[in-house]
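Look at one record.

>
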Amino acid sequence: MAAHRSGPLKQQNKAHKGGRHRGRGSAQRDGKGRLALKVLSRKVRKELSRVDQRHRASQLRKQKKEAVLAEKRQLGSKDGPPHQVLVVPLHDRISLPEAFRLLQDKDTGTVHLNEWGSTHSFVLLCPRLKHRWYFTSARPGDLHAVLDMAKVADTILFLLDPLEGWDSTGDYCLSCLFAQGLPTYTLAVQGISGLPPRKQIDARKKLSKAVEKRFPDDKLLLLDTQQEAQMLLRQLANQKQRHLAFRDRRAYMFAHAADFVPSEENNLVGTLKISGYIRGQTLNVNSLLHIIGQGDFQMKQIDAPIDPFLLNPRVVKSQDSGAAMEICAVDAVVDMEEDLKVLMKADPERQESLQTEVIPDPMEGEQTWPTEEELNEANDCLKESSKVVKKVPKGTSSYQAEWILDEDGESGGEDEYDDTEHEDFIEEESQDESSEKEEEEECETMTIGESVHHDLYDENVDEEAEEKMLEKYKQERLQEMFPDEVDTPRDVAARIRFQKYRGLKSFRTSPWDPKENLPQDYARIFQFQNFTNTRKRIFKEIEEKEVEGAEVGWYVTLHVSEVPISVIEYFKRGAPLIVFSLLPHEQKMSVLNMVVSRHPGNTEPVKAKEELIFHCGFRRFRASPLFSQHTAADKHKFQRFLTADVALVATVYGPITFPPASVLLFKQNSNGMHSLIATGHLLSVDPDRMVIKRVVLSGHPFKIFTKMAVVRYMFFNREDVLWFKPVELRTKWGRRGHIKEPLGTHGHMKCSFDGKLKSQDTVLMNLYKRVFPKWTYDPYVPEPVPWMKSEISSTVPEVDME
């Protein structure tokens, strides 16, 4: 009997998936005893019992508390630097001398006065509190001095008015300090005791509500009597210190005294001796110094004089008699100058170089003179390429064929080639600027009639500045209404005018080589192979590696070489002399990229490549930035103006600075004042970040045939249409298309689109080129005109609206 065979319609069940639901034994057999790292780490964590976990958490809390207490005890103690306090009055009714008089109480401690020009400072030694303070203040109206002193201050003491708190000048100062980064601060109210007793409580309540916006959860202290001053000192001594990232990894010093020794060869340059306390990190004599507002310098040696502000004066016993004799440290300095201790001297082999730029070699990359074989090979290739295939009658010789014309009416040979059409992508900056000026759209000039107000208003108005500002407002408005649109010139061919531009299929995905056609200035700068890794390595060395030099808290004298005499003159006029040590490579020039946002208090248009004043970390310099979009792509669109709604990236040539670092942008007005226009932070040091400028050419549909259209006014000759034929077109209503062929000789062209056009639509063509910043870096910033209340509140004279 034959066996049954299943047919094609028999049910087929799925096979059992044993691998997914295998047991522990099969898994161990497959793994052969191997365990993953994660399993091992989990077992170690599970071994800690709940009691051990609590014990470990308490140990971590204890270590953090001890670190905070050690920092408090170190600051202002006999082994650490004095507690530096910057006193900033925020209202014009605040009396700074009266506040200093209350703090200079002889019952509290010993006072050492130190006055340079118009900058008042004093040292307060308090053995009872085992603390010493160094109170400083900036010159009235000098904003840059306030910002520079805030960079090195341990605490900022803000003095408030009991009625208003701060005025417009104080609010402007607070905006700058908040953008730069605040260290530890304290709020004190002066003059509240002068109010009637009934109004004092109401004034404190109103002031507390006003202060909550800027300083939430902060306590207001009083400063009207000696007792309140002592309470304020205790509060300053017991406060937890806040850290600024850009100064914690560098050694810095606020100069207490300075002396200049001119060199024998030139009296205008010499050695500057700066005395003060080392803060932040250990200072090595072989590293470079940066004097804020003056530049980078090298050190010769570091001396260790006697600390002039000892908390407890030293006691010297006489050999003849057992009487003790107290010697004040200030008087001992003169006697001990001969026995001055030299800590370190610079080693020329290990000292950092002051080289800021690369000296470009004009012959680098040039070819050597070719050999005879290369010349013969080139001639053979030229002959082969110059041969042209023609149709000639039978029996024609090669000599006769040379005289036979083509169908186009031209003899054989190479085609004509216009070198100007394939000029380099980037030329010198001057040519680039001239092309950009031609590119800008012309605007109509507008005459302003005479004011109907009184003559005093007209006297305070600068007509030229008003005309320039009106022109900027017009250009900014045109840029908002018609972004990047440019009129095609009629006197110059478009293929010549826009020969440095190219079309892109996609701005986001189309490739662009960052090393292509770089300007000559890129041969002068330095570039990191990997900036992030270099930054991590340097910061790790700071934390782990021990550096030989002057320790934190030591009172030393730095011998800075090759310093111009203008630095000591600047210091004697009352300006602060502040020194920062540089990390490796920070003296070299590169391309800085900073993320900035428009300050809401300034609404004037700011154009790209306009000279601005930068506060970048501990540096202050002038430069002309480019503005671009802040995106994560490899190409970033150039912005012609600093817009107020989004954050942009400012790109400048400048010395390398390792982030984090705060950035403030100021603009010098016609009256000499510096106004804050933007704030932000340092993004990166990357010359390969590409800033791409876009130009939009516009045309109008003349005749529309379904998906075909005749477009005019984009070009004005036939050759331009053929030159830009490969570039894709788009419209404002979202259509995309291409140029099919030119029509006639006046620039009309037939275009095809992916849909039917509307008669009111506009045809656009996007062209792109890479732009680079101008080399306008200047480390010397002119002193601003002191800012006053009326000038800060409004730059335009008040108008009587009645």
